[in-house]
Amino acid sequence: MALITKNGDQAENAVDAPKIEFPCENYVIKVVSLDADGIHTEITNCLLCHAPEMNTTAEKSNRSSKGRFVSFSFRIVAQSEGQLAALHRDLMAIESVKMVL
């Protein structure tokens, strides 16, 4: 599995980095963002650019208790560490997105 630094780069020399085999079905991407207008569509479009086979009906969302934040969980077929790094970088470039796991 790709470990991604805060800048969206791959941490290539991580000591205890878990390894996954690609392609990896049902790879979970979790995105935490401010609850802004159109954020769901913007995040979904970004994910579909990197993982067009993503099943959008299998996603889950959860709002924070005060309604300021929303988290989304998506399942994709992860093809490579490069794909995951690019996806992380592009998701973090969305202004309202605060965290990508």
From TrEMBL:
Q: What is this protein called?
A: DUF493 domain-containing protein
The species is Marinomonas vulgaris
**Assigned protein family:** Belongs to the UPF0250 family.
